[in-house]
């Protein structure tokens, strides 16, 4: 169906109200409208009920006679003009036998849309009504589209407001986490030429690095990371970071006072204002490394003690035990000198006991060393 036919089919369903104190005029108009295809037609000869019928039935077009007793067409137009903004567009086709230009001018100023001059021309009646209803149809469509657009704008505005509020909440949350983090967090841009100056840092940076935030924003990685003196070191780390999006490694940083500290670094790359940016989180592991080194040193001491126990202490003890065995094996020593035999036997038993103690100490030392290695 063509657009023109679709519009015509639609306007034939519109409601029409005729207000004319002359019944023959109403009958004529109803017949013309029926022949045209209109079915929703309401009419009245009592102009005093016109406004009530307009309010109740909400016609799409009003055919209005100007010269009527009690309430004239001008009176009805004047009342309708007061409610124009609160109701949908309703064209008013004025029915008049008055050809005075001033009457038409007055009617137009009060909101009349068009005129039909009595006596009516059948073709003109049908065409003018269809033209006005077509105009109403198009205006209603435009209004519906505008209302729809307003609804969409309202929905989108609410969505944007919600998104903005959510973003603000997230920003506050992440800012709180950023500021409360005890690890040093630094943010900077990165490109082929290297890292930019730091563009953001958290309060922990001052405690970790010794620089104030204002001082740090005038520095870059070159000023704090000792590994940056090796260009290959930087390029290798940068390449891995760009490939994976994140990277964990260890480095040594130089604090403001010149002190060197071992750092565990977690780096993440992302887009910020159309540029590649890197967020570095530094965790000081100097004490951890010192603790590990102390444990390794202790392990070396354990190994040395275990070796001394196994080889240095037990060797002379074994020789002593051998000599004592020889003494106890002397011919009939137990019968010849029971007292001496008793003392030698006591020394031999003590030697065996001491050997067993050394064995147990060696085993416990080896077990402790094994646990620390794990």
Automatic annotation (TrEMBL):
Pfam families: PAS_9, Response_reg
Protein name in UniProt: Response regulator
Domain PAS: 170-245
Coiled coil start-end: 139-177
Start and end residues of each Response regulatory domain: 15-133
Family matches, as Gene3D superfamilies: 3.40.50.2300, PAS domain
Keyword Phosphoprotein: yes
Residues with 4-aspartylphosphate modification: 65
CDD domains in the cross-refs: PAS
